[in-house]
Automatic annotation (TrEMBL):
Pathway: Amino-acid biosynthesis; L-threonine biosynthesis; L-threonine from L-aspartate: step 4/5
InterPro entries: GHMP_kinase_C_dom, GHMP_kinase_C_sf, GHMP_kinase_N_dom, GHMP_knse_ATP-bd_CS, Homoserine_kinase, Ribosomal_Su5_D2-typ_SF, Ribsml_uS5_D2-typ_fold_subgr
Annotated protein name in UniProt: Homoserine kinase
Similarity section: Belongs to the GHMP kinase family. Homoserine kinase subfamily.
Organism: Cinchona calisaya
Glycosyltransferase as UniProt keyword: no
Lineage start: Eukaryota, Viridiplantae, Streptophyta, Embryophyta, Tracheophyta
Length: 387
């Protein structure tokens, strides 16, 4: 089993992907937050306190574990939501990743080992080296925040999300792992701390963006107001309003890095103004529970979707079919290839999903599956614990 440890908060691991040994260099600076001098400042970012009974803290004493084993869950997410590229996202109920974390006397104190990865087809592609695994990176980051040096941990990851699906697969793994480590040691850290841990994972795997990992941890809709300092604003969607996401995932992998490479380096002022206005309308619609307004804004991106749509066979036809069959709006979920549509009725959502699946086969020659899910208002959470 691969394992990793740390010697101080200012240390970063230096390891070759094919080498199971781990060494440390206290002078090494890995990818740091924007405008920071070194990675040692990662725990002192100015963060906005998120809704939580806990505040962002810097622990001095190593906490004792309160459980011998915990199991956590983190939901799928829809990032961007059309015009909200890298600053808007929401959590989706009923599908996501599970992490089981245990105290393990066979793992060296201060180290974490990934013992098993299971679940969705393709999960076996993921490395068990925690330094290069989404869950492992986030877990190590939380261990650093908590100063865990006296016990070894073993992590098992169950993937409920396909890789490269546009449903926040890497973020779900990171969020579940961060919550698991935190809860194993008594839940000492705030949500904002856990988002920072998730961001560290995302930055090494798919890019420095929080529009998946923030809603995966917080639930609901989330606006990333700023990255430096990190400021997150939860957007409360009215509980009395029915909202259903129609998620159609084709058998086609769209790696986030590849889809980000397709984006324009420059945009026109008119497109900038248009997208800003649509993003503002989307936020207002979320807060008001206005599904028609939400769908209209969701469908109106002029910057990102036009560049990514041609890379997903049949996407434009699928979107057209969704709107023709009564969806309030439709766009690419995250980097794709999953396409998301919104409606106010579950049965209607199933019908829309069936038409979208048919369109993927007809226009893109791709098999696809459809799911109809509600908004996840809770985010990553503990689902089981063993004393």
């Amino acid at each position: 089993m691969a394992s990793a440890a740390f010697s101080s908060l200012c240390c970063r691991s230096l390891i070759h992907p094919n080498n199971s040994s781990t060494t440390f260099n206290s002078n090494y600076d890995s990818k740091a937050p924007p405008n920071s001098a070194s990675s040692s400042s990662s725990l002192s970012w100015k963060t906005r306190a998120l809704p939580s009974s806990k505040t962002s803290i810097s622990l001095i004493a190593e906490p004792e574990p309160v459980f011998s084993s915990v199991k956590s869950f983190a939901p799928a997410t829809v990032a961007n939501l059309g015009p909200g590229f890298d600053f808007l996202g929401c959590a989706v109920d009923g599908v996501g990743d599970f992490v089981t974390l245990s105290l393990d006397p066979d793992v060296r104190p201060g180290h974490i080992s990934i013992s098993d990865i299971s679940g969705f087809p393709g999960a076996n592609k993921l490395t068990i080296n925690p330094l290069f695994n989404c869950a492992g990176i986030a877990a190590i980051s939380v261990m650093k925040m908590l100063h865990i040096r006296s016990v070894g941990l073993s992590l098992s990851l169950h993937k409920g999300l396909p890789l490269g699906s546009g449903l926040g697969s890497s973020a779900a793994s990171a969020a579940a792992a961060a919550v698991a480590v935190n809860e194993l040691f008594g839940g000492k850290l705030s949500t904002s701390d856990l988002v920072l841990a998730g961001l560290e994972s995302e930055s090494k795997v798919s890019g420095y963006h929080a529009d998946n990992v923030a809603p995966a941890l917080m639930g609901g809709f989330v606006l990333i107001r700023s990255y430096d300092p990190l400021e997150l604003i939860p957007l409360k969607f009215p509980e009395s309003t029915n909202l259903f996401f129609v998620l159609v995932n084709p058998e086609f992998e769209a790696p986030t890095k590849k889809m980000r490479a397709a984006l324009p380096s420059e945009i026109t002022m008119s497109d900038h103004v248009w997208n800003c206005s649509q993003a503002g309308a989307l936020v207002a619609s979320v807060l008001q529970g206005d599904l028609r307004g939400l769908g209209k804004a969701l469908s109106s991106d002029k910057i990102v979707e036009p560049r990514r749509a041609p890379l997903i066979p049949g996407m434009e036809a699928v979107k057209a079919v969704a709107l023709e069959n009564g969806a309030f709006g439709c766009t690419i979920s995250g980097a794709g290839p999953t396409i998301v549509a919104v409606t106010d009725d579950e049965e209607k959502g199933r019908e829309i999903g069936e038409r979208m699946v048919e369109a993927f086969m007809k226009a893109g020659d791709l098999k696809a599956i459809a799911m109809v899910k509600r908004l996840d208002r809770v985010g990553a959470r503990l689902v089981h614990s063993t004393p």
